[in-house]
């Protein structure tokens, strides 16, 4: 497996890309590096990817009803697969409810 940073560097359009463009490209690369040939993840793979690659955002969220709803959604109907669009929506929901988001906001307020 080629490191994400090396994969990012190989995308010519991102040579002068913004931080935001590189961030989204990183998400896409992480997703597609784990996806099946159809570009999808099983529900279990989605859950595992979130727990390993998005840990700092979901840490401490386990008791929140919305988090439990999202995770139980992944546990149900395991034959269903997650496409990139659904994966991104899940990331956005988890980010918005994350305690880490408040910490990030506070960093910007201390400048």
TrEMBL record:
Molecular function GO labels: transition metal ion binding
Transmembrane segments: none
Source organism superkingdom: Eukaryota
SMART domains assigned to the protein according to its UniProt record, in alphabetical order: S_100
Domain S100/CaBP-9k-type calcium binding subdomain: from-to ranges: 20-59
This protein's name: SNTAN protein
Source organism (scientific name): Scytalopus superciliaris
Protein's gene: Sntn
């Amino acid at each position: 497996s080629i490191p994400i940073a090396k994969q990012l560097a190989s995308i010519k359009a991102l040579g002068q890309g913004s931080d935001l463009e590189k961030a989204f490209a990183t998400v896409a690369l992480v997703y597609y590096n784990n996806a099946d040939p159809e570009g999808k993840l099983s529900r279990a793979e989605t859950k595992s990817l979130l727990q390993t690659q998005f840990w700092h955002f979901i840490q401490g969220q386990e008791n929140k009803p919305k988090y439990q709803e999202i995770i139980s959604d992944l546990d149900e109907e395991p034959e269903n697969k997650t496409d990139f669009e659904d994966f991104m929506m899940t990331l956005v929901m988890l980010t918005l409810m994350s305690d880490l988001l408040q910490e990030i906001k506070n960093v910007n307020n201390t400048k």
